[in-house]
Specification:
- The chain is an alpha+beta fold.
- Helices cover about 25% and strands about 35% of the residues.
- It is built from 5 helices and 7 strands, in the order αβββαβββαβαα.
- Strands 3, 4, 5, 6 and 7 form a 5-stranded antiparallel sheet that branches. A two-stranded antiparallel sheet has the order 1-2.
- The protein starts with a helix and ends with a helix.
- About 15% of the residues have low confidence.
């Protein structure tokens, strides 16, 4: 029984760091039962409960009065030298788009580009003996349509963070804009000052 208080003290020292409070219960047969009660989380004045000792009061979501940007089409062109890596990345990107409820218009494979380099096999002799090296670049094009600016930013950041090594990405966005006021009404429908100045 002499070792029990030391055990309890070391247990209390370890539990001081976590969010549980021990509740000790001494039984009649000289055994100690330890039960854990959840310590209440600290609460800010705004009513937000915090679970960590290092926290910030900065809001995670900001609201603005500016309207969100609308995109008619976002074209993601991915290129690399390994065809199997591009196949896997295409599946990942289309699956991520479906999870975010983004409309995938089409996924196509443009023709590959082959760069050939012809060199002499020997430096000094056998001028007709050549060695040819080639570098193949494969492409994938994923076209998404009808996106908002915030959805496009989240999706593109997610797929760019998971871009494999040796793969390059090019993004082309087609933005929808409001028609300017001077183009809404035809010129011939408006009364021009030149017609009023003409003598009758």
């Amino acid at each position: 029984m002499a070792a029990a208080p030391g055990l309890v003290c070391s247990l209390l020292r370890q539990l001081h760091r976590v969010d549980c409070v021990p509740f000790l219960n001494c039984a009649a047969n000289n055994t100690i039962a330890v039960r854990f009660w959840k310590r209440p989380l600290p609460t800010l004045s705004s009513g937000i409960k915090l679970g960590f000792s290092h926290y910030s009061t900065a809001p995670l979501i900001t609201e603005t009065d500016d309207p969100d940007t609308l995109y008619k089409k976002v074209c993601v062109l991915v290129k690399g030298h390994d065809k199997m890596v591009l196949d896997s990345y295409e599946y990942f990107a289309t699956l991520a788009a479906k999870e975010l409820n983004i409309t995938v218009d089409k996924v196509n494979e443009p023709t590959r580009k082959i760069d050939r380099l012809t060199l002499l096999k020997s430096i000094h002799i056998f001028k007709k003996h050549r060695v040819q090296y080639e570098m193949r670049t494969h492409y994938r094009c994923i076209e998404l349509k009808h996106l908002t600016g915030s959805t496009a930013d989240v999706y593109l950041e997610y797929i760019q963070r998971n871009l494999p090594e040796g793969v390059a990405m090019e993004v082309t966005k087609t933005m929808l804009k409001k028609l300017p006021d001077h183009l809404r009404e035809p010129i011939w429908n408006s009364d021009s000052p030149q017609d009023e100045e003409k003598p009758v």
